[in-house]
Amino acid sequence: MTAFAIGSPAKLRHPEKxxxxxxxxxxKPGWIRVKAPNGQEYDETRQLMRGLKLNTVxxxxxxxxxxxxxxxxxxxxxxxxxxxxxxCAFCNxxxxxxxxxxxxxxxxxxxxxxxxxxxxxxxxSVDRDDLADGGAAHFARTIRAIRAAxxxxxxxxxxxxxxxxxxxLEVVVEARxxxxxxxxxxxxxxxPRVRPGARYFTSLQLLSRVKELDPTIFTKSGLMVGLGETKxxxxxxxxxxxxxxxxxxxxxxYLQPTPKHAAVDRFVTPEEFESYATLGRGKGFLMVASxxxxxxxxxxxxxxxxxxxxxxxxxxxx
Length: 318
Hints:
Elements: H1 40-51, E1 55-56, H2 57-60, H3 66-71, E2 76-79, H4 105-116, E3 120-125, H5 136-149, E4 154-158, H6 168-174, E5 179-181, H7 191-194, H8 200-213, E6 218-225, H9 231-243, E7 248-253, H10 270-282, E8 287-290, H11 300-313
Parallel strand pairs: 2-3, 3-4, 4-5, 5-6, 6-7, 7-8
Antiparallel strand pairs: 1-2
GO molecular function: lipoate synthase activity
Subcellular location: Cytoplasm
Binding site for [4Fe-4S] cluster 2: 84, 88, 91
C-alpha cells in the first residue's frame, strides 16, 4: 500500500509522515511470505463488510493474515471510524481528522457477527483523542449489540489507551468483554520514535486497572519485534506485563507498510520467536503466542478456548 488513499491521489493517507525521508522496504525472508488473498469465502466476507459499511483492521492495517482469516470468515472489526487521531510510526491506518461516529455501527457489527456465525469475535478501534470519552461508550454499545445479536459469541476487544479520559475504562469494563486487549507494541525506549502519542506506563496501568475492576476478564497485550529492541528489553516488557497480571502475550514480526513508516531493523527468526514463547511461559503467562506472523487477533478464537482450559487447570488463578 502507498502513503496515499487509493483512488484519491491528492489525499495523503499519512500526512504526518509526508516530510519524513523514505526508508527502503527490505525483502521478506521465506518464512514470512503469505499467499495473496482470494477465493469465494474471502469475497463473501469482503462483500458483507462493504454492505454493512464496516471497517476492519485486517484491511486498514494491511494485515498479512487477511487471506487466511477472511477465507475462514473471521474478521476483526474496527469501530469508531477509519481515521485515527494519532500517527504511530508502525501503523498503516489512515490518520487525520476523524468523521462523526456512526450511530448504527454497533448494531451493524452485531448483525455481521450473527451472519458470519462467529463463536469468538475481536473488536478494535482507531484512537479517538477528539472524543470526551475516547470512544468508550461506543465500545460498550458494540459489546452489548453483539450480545443481543449473537448471545453465544465470546467477545474480545482491543482498545486504545484512553489517555486522559477519566472514567472511560470503567465504562468499557462494565460491559464485560471476555478478553480485554491493549497492546504495548514495543519497548519503552522506542516509544518516542515508534509510538510518540502514547506512554508506556499509561498502557501498563490500563491493563492493571482492568484486573482491579474485574479479575474474571482475561487480559492480553502484544509486542512487535524487529524495530530495534533487545532481547533484554523484551524480557523486561514481559516482567512488566506479569506485574500487571496480564494473562496472555502475543509477539509478532513488525512489517513496514510504506517507505514513510519506521524501517524494519531486522527479521527475527522463527527459532528466536520460539525462545520468546518459552521465556514468557516461564515468567507465568497463561499463554504466549510468538511467531513471525502472530498478530493480536490471529487465531483469537482458538486461543480463547485454550485460555479457558488453562485457567481451569490453574484453578484459583485469575
